[in-house]
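Propose amino acids for all 400 sites.
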């Protein structure tokens, strides 16, 4: 390593905590700022792909997440209109033994927080960052407090970061998410993320999401696609209206719907699409969703934030100065980010939109096309996050 830098990271989310852990582990002096009162994650379940798992492996955290997450071999979606498969991705089509890992966001957060604290990161809570100055290296909070100057500033404030540009595209559809105990004998595949669709207007999904702690019951994450402008109606109407529609789309989920007794159990997430530029502003760098927000259609966001965090540490390994290191960081990550931002943008209307043509074609063409070589390995590689060789660029071996 070059000299030890002082680093201020805004946001103790997935990217911010991972960056904090690796950078402090390299001997830098790191402070991480977040608005929350006590460290605690928001949200439901997510999928770690080969990319994210490789980064966690390099951080010495793979075993910890594997002990609590649920291995996933297959993504499997069926059109309720035609009964045909419209999504069928098996990781093994790319490589034997390759998996995704369903995990509760809270679990991943706990593992990263523990790693950051063990590495000596200083966590500053109840601090809402409103501005940053990439020239002077300071962060400013909403009470007028000035933090720094730091040699390097990292914006890990997520999709609504006040330090990056407002999203150009607020997507019409978001989703309701709930993590629920795995119901006995419900017949869901314990190693698959399953989905059901009606055109692209309705979609429900079930994803194994492991356990909150050792000995805790197995969970799954249930999600229901909803137009953002329908969310208030969902909350004000009797819950039975929504449950009737959800049951009609996928009768097997009745046992899950029975566990949902109030709208508060369903967390709403609106989706945005935005690639912020410039990524580097003086000694300020944007990572994770603050750089590249997208719908979770391809399940890459957390993995991309982990890749960004690790790339930052890689870039700083040899360089004594933040400026050249940040240019190196960009070279390590820009192409992969471009590819996945484009792919996610292209895939989103196929699964969540009011359009009729794309879903109609999807329902009729996907079943035969999914089987045609080279679709199976290409789709597995796409979902695993490997298009553009992000791991090779970071000098990381595939996770296993
Ligand atoms: C419902 C849903 C499902 C998803 N599913 C998947 C999936 O299956 N796989 C996947 O890889 N990704 C998934 N994602 C995306 C993934 O969660 C994000 O891409 C990832 O969390 C981005 O990490 P981040 O560090 O950039 O931001 P975040 O993890 O969002 O962290 C941002 C942090 O900044 C803090 N913060 C925000 N504003 C301020 C402020 N002004 N001042 C101080 N602190 C602030 C927040 O409290 C938070 O702690 C999903 C996202 C959603 C919403």
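Proposal:
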């Amino acid at each position: 390593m070059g000299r030890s830098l002082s680093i201020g990271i805004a946001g103790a989310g997935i990217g911010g905590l991972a960056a904090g852990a690796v950078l402090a582990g390299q001997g830098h002096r790191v402070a991480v700022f977040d608005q929350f009162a006590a460290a605690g994650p928001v949200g439901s379940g997510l999928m770690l792909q080969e990319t994210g798992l490789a980064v966690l492996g390099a951080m010495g955290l793979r075993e910890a997440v594997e002990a609590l997450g649920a291995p996933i071999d297959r993504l499997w979606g069926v059109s309720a209109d035609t009964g045909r498969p419209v999504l069928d991705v098996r990781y093994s089509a790319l490589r034997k033994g390759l998996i995704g890992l369903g995990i509760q966001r809270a679990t991943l957060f706990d593992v990263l927080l523990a790693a950051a604290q063990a590495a000596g990161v200083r966590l500053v809570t109840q601090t809402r960052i409103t501005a940053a100055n990439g020239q002077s290296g300071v962060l400013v909070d909403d009470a007028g407090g000035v933090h720094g100057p730091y040699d390097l500033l990292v914006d890990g404030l997520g999709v609504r970061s006040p330090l990056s540009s407002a999203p150009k595209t607020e997507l019409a559809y978001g989703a309701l998410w709930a993590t629920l105990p795995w119901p006995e004998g419900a017949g869901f595949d314990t190693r698959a993320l399953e989905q059901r669709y009606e055109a692209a207007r309705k979609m429900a999904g079930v994803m194994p999401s492991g356990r909150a702690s050792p000995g805790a019951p197995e969970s799954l994450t249930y999600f229901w696609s909803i137009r953002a402008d329908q969310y208030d109606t969902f909350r004000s109407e009797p819950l039975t209206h929504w449950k009737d529609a959800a049951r009609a789309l996928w009768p097997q989920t009745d046992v899950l719907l029975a566990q949902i007794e109030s709208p508060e159990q369903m967390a709403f997430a609106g989706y945005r699409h935005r690639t912020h530029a410039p990524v580097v502003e003086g000694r300020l760098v944007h990572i994770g969703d603050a750089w590249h927000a997208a719908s979770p259609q391809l399940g890459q966001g957390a993995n991309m934030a982990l890749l960004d965090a690790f790339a930052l540490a890689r870039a700083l390994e040899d360089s004594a100065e933040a400026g050249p290191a940040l240019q190196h960081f960009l070279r390590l990550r820009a192409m992969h980010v471009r590819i996945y931002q484009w792919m996610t943008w292209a895939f989103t209307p196929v699964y969540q939109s009011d359009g009729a043509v794309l879903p109609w074609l999807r329902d009729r063409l996907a079943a035969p096309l999914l089987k045609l070589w080279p679709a199976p390995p290409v789709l597995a590689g796409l979902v695993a996050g490997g298009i553009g060789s992000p791991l090779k660029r970071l000098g990381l071996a595939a996770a296993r």
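Residues 6-168+272-393 form a domain with the FAD/NAD(P)-binding domain fold (CATH 3.50.50.60). The pocket of flavin-adenine dinucleotide is lined by residues 10-16, 33-36, 43-44, 46-47, 128-129, 156-158, 160, 162, 177, 269, 288-290, 296, 299-303, 305 (CB under 6 Å).
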